[in-house]
Specification:
This protein has four domains: 37 residues, no CATH class; 291 residues, 3-Layer(aba) Sandwich (Rossmann fold); 164 residues, Rossmann fold; 26 residues. The protein is 48% helix and 11% strand. The chain contains 25 helices and 13 strands. The chain has a seven-stranded parallel β-sheet with strand order 3-2-1-4-5-6-7, with helices on both faces. Strands 10-9-8-11-12-13 form a six-stranded parallel β-sheet, sandwiched between helices. It is globular. It starts with 6 loop residues before the first helix and ends with a helix. The relative contact order is 0.10.
């Protein structure tokens, strides 16, 4: 299999021409890089939209810097990604075509937005969207597998790095194995969300509902009896959905002749994956045990800030000692100026009363003039703004990437969770004391303003954020470089040795049901025998006493 080293990259970075003669530099590079081979890696961040795509970009850049060829697989609905000059510097793009005129992922994302704004933007609303989500999973997979020219280009892949929510990546691996005799392609699963049962199952890690919050529960690790009950039901309901979603791929497996390649009765990426990457870090996350094949890489998009555009820098500098507030509702909810204008007006009226300057992300500008202290932009360099020394507060919707960027830069945060794992992010922010949570059900101008003033006026939120930042930054390598290292590692060595024996156990074996049943049977048998021995002994004693009395008479 391909041997991969990253010493070349580090040597080129650290080698100073003033310390090494030119001929010696050339010799060292040739000597170190002689066994370095470029791997062909495919990355799939769902359809190419939002955090599912963005969290793969830093990993891909790290791999490219170390000499590998990385292609991003995206839908033609988001082909504008391929025109981004910054991304084009690093990646090739594989764009699959939507061949069904009645299908669009945009309808699903609109549904997500509606559910987020609804009064039931919780587990109930989430499961209402699952049917639409499952359709996306099936359709996008079919679009890829039916593109014979694209699959031909994938024939020599060394690794597939895919969002865990797209089970098609496992079928692609099996397809390459069967029809192109590519038995060495590795599958690496990635998730941009807080820890979830799919990620744990795929890596052979255990989910314990007693202290591990299920995704979208909004719980901490310290739960009441009722919360643990809800948590258990939520976690296992999610596991049921994952199983059903996986089994929905059986018709595709049959269509493309892959059913014989599926290693279990149910289709699961857990049996196919070599490695899992989780967007979490125990500097912030509630502790729980993990298997060797699950690598924490939380904070992929968090990095030192770049310089801001001059007009934005000038606006920030005009804030003086008061500083600035950054306000964004992310990819899915940033259009609320048109979809929920009353919500935008609440925030504008509340933020107009603070002394700080405010930078707001709005895809569509409102019909009225904004207050002089507020600047609206269709897109924000979020990480760069959070890293600016004048940033005092971050107000946002609770995305996992934004959370780690705020932690990295030590910025106090107010979170307005709408949907999904945003509820979980909110619980972590409040648990660690770095900010407050807004309840979307009771939003008002005064409610928003009072919370903003509370966080800005109490130094404990800033202290907590900076303490977390110090812990989070104290690491030997960046999350992206760590992810890249492990991807290279499994390309070279495979991931079988990282797998836990739990992957080969049935539900009964894993939960020791057969052992407990056997031990219970032994105990019952012993008690049964003891009962009958005791009964016989008592009967004999009573019988002897009766005979003695009769003899005395």
């Amino acid at each position: 299999m391909i041997a991969i080293r990253h010493q070349c990259y580090h040597l080129r970075k650290t080698m100073d021409h003033r310390s090494f003669p030119t001929f010696l530099q050339i010799y060292l590079l040739i000597w170190v890089c002689v066994e370095v081979h470029s791997a062909h890696i495919l990355m799939s961040g769902f359809v190419g939209k939002g955090s599912h795509f963005l969290c793969l970009v830093p990993i891909g850049k790290s791999l490219v810097r170390q000499g590998h060829n990385v292609s991003m697989l995206i839908s033609d609905e988001y082909k504008d990604r391929a025109n981004d000059p910054e991304l084009r510097k690093f990646f090739n793009f594989e764009i699959y075509k939507n061949t069904d005129p009645q299908y669009s992922t945009r309808e699903y994302f609109q549904l997500v937005e509606e559910l987020g704004y609804s009064e039931k933007g919780d587990m109930v609303s989430f499961f209402k969207s699952l049917s639409s989500f499952k359709k996306i999973l099936i359709k996008t997979c079919e679009f890829v597998l039916e593109d014979k020219e694209m699959m031909d280009r994938f024939a020599t892949l060394d690794a597939i790095v895919s969002d865990i929510g797209w089970p098609c990546s496992g079928l692609i691996k099996l397809y390459l194995k069967k029809f192109y005799n590519n038995t060495g392609v590795r599958l690496v699963l990635d998730t941009p969300t807080t820890p979830n049962i799919a990620m744990l199952d795929a890596s052979g890690s255990h989910f314990n509902a007693a202290y591990q919050p299920a995704i979208m529960s909004g719980f901490t690790s310290n739960m009441t009896f009722i919360e643990r009950t809800i948590n258990a039901l939520s976690g296992y309901s999610m596991r049921l959905f994952i199983m059903l979603a996986g089994n929905a791929f059986f018709p595709l497996a049959d269509k493309y002749g892959l059913r014989d390649q599926i290693p279990a009765l149910e289709y699961s990426q857990a049996a196919i994956a070599d490695l899992s990457l989780g967007s979490f870090d125990f500097a912030i996350e509630f502790p729980f045990p993990i298997s060797p094949s699950l690598i924490p890489v939380g904070g992929l998009t968090a990095e030192p800030p770049n310089d801001l555009p001059q007009d934005l820098e000038d606006f920030i500098q005009s804030s003086g000692d008061d500083g600035v507030i950054v306000f964004t509702l992310g990819t899915y909810f940033a259009s609320f100026a048109t979809s929920r204008p009353h919500l935008l007006k609440m925030f504008i009226d509340a933020l107009a009363k603070v002394p700080q300057k405010v930078i707001v992300q709005l895809k569509v500008m409102p019909q009225y003039d904004l207050p002089s202290n507020i600047k609206a932009l269709p897109w924000l360099p979020q990480n760069d703004l959070l890293g600016h020394p004048k940033t005092r507060l971050f107000i946002y919707h609770g995305g996992n990437n934004g959370f780690y960027e705020a932690v990295y830069h030590g910025v106090p945060t107010i979170v307005l969770p709408f949907f999904g794992d945003q509820l979980d992010t909110a619980s972590r922010i409040t648990y660690h004391g770095m900010g407050l949570k807004l309840d979307k059900m009771i939003l008002s101008v005064d409610y928003i303003y009072n919370n903003v003033i509370e966080v800005l006026g109490d130094n404990r939120y800033s202290v907590a954020a900076k303490r977390l930042s110090a812990i989070f930054r104290d690491r030997p390598m960046t999350p992206a470089d760590r992810a890249a290292f492990w991807i290279q590692h499994v390309i070279k060595h495979g991931g079988d040795y990282l797998r836990t024996p739990a992957d080969d156990l049935s539900f009964i074996q894993y939960n020791m049901i057969d052992v407990y049943a056997f031990l219970a049977g032994v105990v019952v048998t012993i008690l049964f025998v003891f009962y009958h021995i005791t009964r016989c002994f008592v009967a004999c004693c009573i019988g002897k006493k009766g005979n003695t009395k009769e003899k005395r008479r």
